[in-house]
Design brief:
By secondary structure, the chain is of the alpha+beta class. It is 59% helix and 9% strand.
């Protein structure tokens, strides 16, 4: 693996965490509200000490368990059952400690709207089914406490039931979406890793096999048989890299045609750690048929990004050697811009016929798709191929400053 390569980091997400935090705040605020109602109506209760005893138990319960609903791992099923039981006891106890007149007038129960927090905890933890069960028990307790189907009681019961079930259903949908997104991120990471491996295979193994096939055919004899086997393995491996979309083709004519599309292996020099001068990585490409134009000052780029960019330039020059003909010339232009680095590879060959790149990708020839565009995409840059039949081909590679592999 190229030095400095960074793998995509796993992103830990949770759609539930904000809901648990909101529930914690709700429980604390509604306890304060219930205590305020209790103190304002203390002398109106039929049995004030009994009401005070329950409110003391409720306050102590909250002091001991306020942080149990801050995270799903701490909010266990036994805790939720106990929380709901305390709320139900408070609702039913209101019928004993309060006066019949206040109850008939629609006075709030001892836990008041704090009861909703117990039902919401069930909704967030277990979904709409738990919410439906909890809100049904709360509804039954309120009806028993009131002793009649009063309009305001039915209204409050339906409000709690519908809202808790809706929240529970939303939580279930959010969880399913979160799992789907996590799976999609895993697939994306696996796909990017596969493309990286495919680039390495294209730039090394496939080219070596093609060279063996071509040299074996030229030497004849036993070498020809070895070359034929190497050509078959090249096609099989190319099919695997392309995702199995291309069935193996084993005729001698097709193997020869495939081999002509691959140049002998080219290994890009490895850069040192830290920023390096891109000119040093592009200079080895310069030769009799390739000219390099670069700034007179160093063009610094992160080592990993520079290595990938140089490899993409090498892949573009491989395509020139394979398709432009023996007498074709190529020019490399390196531009050092404030926000990005631009490398242009141009040749005077016959150009690329319209639709040929798409056909090559479908056939498993991934040179442009992976070795060039795939590398630039991983760097956060772009690769544009402009070709006019009879007028040559131009490949423009753009890499933003500060980019690195895996960004």
């Amino acid at each position: 693996m190229t030095q400095g390569t960074r793998r995509p980091r796993a992103v830990r997400m949770s759609v539930e965490l904000p809901l648990w935090r909101a529930l914690t705040g709700y429980r604390i605020l509604t306890l304060a509200y219930a205590l305020g109602l209790f103190f304002l109506n203390y002398h109106r209760y039929a049995h004030p000490p009994g009401a005070a005893l329950y409110m003391g138990v409720l306050t102590l319960w909250m002091l001991l368990t306020w942080n149990r609903v801050t995270a799903p791992e701490r909010c266990t099923r036994p805790f939720l059952i106990a929380d709901l039981a305390i709320a139900l006891c408070g609702v039913l106890l209101s019928a004993v400690v309060d006066t019949p007149a206040r109850i008939a007038g629609g006075a709030a129960t001892l836990p008041s709207i704090w009861t909703g927090g117990a039902v919401l905890g069930l909704a967030i933890k277990g979904g709409w089914r738990w919410a439906a069960a909890g809100s049904t028990l709360v509804a039954a307790a309120n009806l028993v406490e009131r002793g009649a189907l009063a309009r305001d009681t039915v209204h409050n019961v339906l409000l709690v039931w519908v809202s808790s079930v809706a929240i529970g259903y939303i939580v279930e949908v959010a969880r399913a979406s979160e799992r789907t997104l996590a799976r999609a991120l895993q697939i994306e990471a696996a796909t990017r890793e596969r493309e990286r491996l495919a680039r390495d295979i294209h730039d090394s193994v496939l080219q070596v096999l093609a060279m063996v096939q071509r040299r074996g055919a030229a030497l004849g004899g036993e070498a020809a048989e070895l070359g034929r086997m190497a050509g078959e393995q090249e096609i099989a491996l190319r099919t695997l890299v392309a995702g199995g979309l291309l069935p193996p083709r084993r005729s001698a004519e097709q193997l020869a045609e495939d081999a002509e599309l691959v140049r002998s292996v080219h290994l890009a020099p490895q850069p040192p750690a830290g920023p390096c001068d891109l000119r040093a990585l592009l200079t080895p490409h310069e030769g009799a048929g390739v000219s390099l134009a670069a700034p007179g000052t160093p063009v610094l780029l992160e080592a990993a990004a520079a290595a990938e960019l140089a490899a993409a330039v090498g892949a573009a020059l491989d395509n020139v050697a394979q398709h432009a003909g023996e007498g074709a010339r190529a020019w490399i232009l390196l531009e050092d811009e404030p926000a990005e680095v631009i490398v242009t590879v141009r040749d005077d060959g016959p150009g690329i016929a319209e639709g040929r790149l798409a056909d090559a990708e479908r056939e498993g020839r991934m040179g442009v798709a992976l070795s060039i565009r795939g590398r630039l995409r991983d760097l956060g840059g772009s690769a544009d191929v402009v070709s006019v039949p009879g007028q040559g081909t131009e490949v423009e590679l753009r890499v933003p400053r500060g980019s690195g592999v895996g960004q």
